[in-house]
Fold these 2 entries.
Entry 1:
Amino acid sequence: CSKCISLYEGAQKSTFQNFWNYVDVLICALSITACAIRFWNSTAAVEISRIDSKDIDTNILVEDFKTTTMTSIYIYSITQVFVFFRLMNFLDVMSGIGPLQLAVKRMLNDVAK
């Protein structure tokens, strides 16, 4: 059993030595967060549709609905940026696409200046 523990500890150390593994965990966490907000938002939309407009001011609820929708879209957009950079890391290895990636990096650097 001590071999299993040492094997687990060694795998754990080697897994998080690579920077991109942290990015992968961040991508997963952001995706789950965006989906959870969107799911919560869809259940809130059902509740808004059931509320009688005479009982409560639905404008406040609609604004909250729009805000949470935009929040989930922003989180998903940030996630897609990280996915793009992760994909660019994979394309660096391919000989045909590697020079294209270098050109894109240089263009992004020029745009950032």
Entry 2:
Amino acid sequence: MGNVSYRPPKDSPIMRCSPLEAMNNEMDIQQLVEEAGPLCNDKIVPFQQLRDTLYNELLNRDQIAGISWKRFPLLNKILKGHRCGELTIFTGPTGSGKTTFMSELSLDLCIQGVPTLWGSFEIRNVRLLRTMINQLAGFNVEDQMEEYGHWAQQLESLSLYFMNFHGSQNLKSVIRTMTHAVYAYNIKLVVIDNLQFMISSELVKHDRFLYQDMAISEFRRFATFHNVHVILVIHPRKEEDDKELSTSSIFGSAKASQEADNVLILQVIKGRGVSRRIQVTKNRFDGSLGTFPLHFDANSLRMSGLSSETKRLDDRGNRKEHENTLVDRRTAPYVAKGRPVQPVTSGELAVSMTTLSKKARNRNRGSSKAQIDTDTRNKTESFIK
């Protein structure tokens, strides 16, 4: 264990005098030495006490990485999974779809059994639930109200809870509610959307940056102490429209990015249409960083790329999901005749369509050239005659 200091017990007579006084008083030095114990502090631990824990982490790295997302496999390659006890900061431009993305991300984990608590301070819970039920069903439930009962039952079966707050709230009240939810419902994921909206009324009484830093510290402490993953949605400071966001774009001081285990940014790229991607700029687990694209489906409000056209019905009427799998509509008659067609991915379908287009152009060019040669030959023969 290395060098360790020893001292007599606290109730020993020598603790009330110096070693010199003990010798002058002819105390039993041998007995004092035998009764002495290690000088310890419960806030300091040697490697010996951490050795087995380190071994288990190295041996079971996949389990330590956390729960993988089913709908966002590319996010797994960067963050490796969802882990308890972490703080994630999520930011993005106003109106870019932060709540929509976070709704599906949390729904993905909740379906896998992660008890989730939502604190939606900017939009009401019913409006958030309209998004969630569409993302769960894979289509716009409002257009098929006869399906509402089935999907409402599916949503009800999840360990999904909502704070009954809206607008600005007292930080202590929010923390107390979260603490109760952890003990009552074993919550493992908390989403706060969004931090500025939650503390807006308190900013009048305090310095806005200091109070936001204090709130972030409280959520950091809560995540660590209760072993709960907390996601804070924070608006960015105002940036130029054509400029991508960065970690320094998060509103407030550097406290948010310093305290966070993960920082995710929803980037919006404007060009031919609008495209979105998630950029991971901080990952304390293993340092992996990167980006992956989002594919928004306006019908189901999903951002994972799973659209309503990828839904299929089995014999019992339950919907099955085939991620990113499409069937070429030109092959539908063959399927109807009983000749099955192997499904192709969207990428393979795009390549096939490009190849067919090139072949069609070449065929048209060839037929045009052949027609010109025939006309020329006929005119020549007519002139000779």
